[in-house]
Known about the structure:
The protein is mostly beta strands. It has eight helices and 30 strands. The strands form six sheets. Strands 24, 25, 26, 27, 28, 29 and 30 form a seven-stranded antiparallel β-sheet that branches. Strands 3-4-5-8-7-6 form a six-stranded antiparallel β-barrel.
Amino acid sequence: MPLLKLDGSVLGTTVGGRVASYADVLEPVQQAVVSIHSTMTVRRPSGFRRGGSAPPRKREGLGSGVIVSPDGFIITNNHVVDGADELSVSLTDNREFKARIIGADDKTDIAVIKIEASKLPSVTLADSDKIRVGDIVFAIGNPLGVGQTVTSGIVSAKGRTELGILDDVDGYEDFIQTDAAINMGNSGGALIDAKGRLVGINSAIISPSDGSIGIGFAIPVNLAASIMHSLVENGGQVPRGYLGVSSETLTADQADSLKLPHDTHGVKVTDVSADSPAAKAGLKPDDVIIAINEHAVASLPDLRLTIAQIAPGSMAVIKFMRLGQEKSQKVSLARLDETINDLLPGVRVVPFSTGTASIFGGRRGNGAAPPTSGLVISAVKSSSAYVDELVPGQIIMQINRADVTDLASARKLIRPGANVFSIYYRSNAADVTITVR
């Protein structure tokens, strides 16, 4: 028998003065990360058969969530719970609970659910504004249903906007990028720093194969916590501030023409809506907004997110440049109308573009030619009364035999009772009757 050297001791946190394990930091956090199982009824488009949709079927989903309070409040992603008929939550100690949705916000992909329990393990929240590129982070969740898993990496980038992940709902993007492995099932799970604090909610990946290639995105915990408080305090709704300007990210050429320093970062106002808070505060086209409440505004996504997080009716201090001079003005924000892009309650549409035909066209189907104008359904909320008849991707060409050209005219074509929608979908065209109540 060979003589083997054995050492059965537990690996310490440090070995030779270097960090050798994060087990002691992560073990209590792992207990606060849960698996979320959803069951939903899927009503499939019928290919335009008479009678509406094909027979429904049940679909099961899997995601993750993070317990943020001992009395059972859990933060997860909206896309984990959207459309769910039933939710169950599994803890690491094998306990299972039924869960109810407190509220969900598709524009940030944050949802809050609740289980009836007490003295639950919960996480400590960090200040995600203070994270830095290069910080060590850990992703905790239930990827691919294999069971709870911890992966490690660093913060690869922060402030990722304009990724297009939430474009279909005109959402607000401000992601932390990480190379900690994130896969399907990790959604809604925790991004943890080296002190064991929650810095983000894992949400999405970029991958040609749907598997991790080291480009994952998490919603900063400051934003997630803000949305959670709004959902809890406002009956599942998120009231957002409204300023009333059309704007664009300032370019170097624009800074030159406005006689601003080359290093000026901000948002150039292109138009001010009549009777809006911005108009009442005296903002004008060509003003360059550089800060809101001392928070620097460097781009249009910055401005949208910053204003949206301020409660309607609150006073905000806007710092801006006008004719080369820095000015400051207080403004009372109004409430953003979230239904501005809805054709029907819960049915969001976007204008048709030439690229849409290539996305939803392709095959000729029943011989119908792709449309050249209309409105494209970008999202249908699960709570919408029209979720059985209308689905994202459908192109509405006509309503009651009149051509659809824009949202305003389309709304005028709709009447109470039965309406005939001429729709193009998956290379097929057909009429669908939509009853408006």
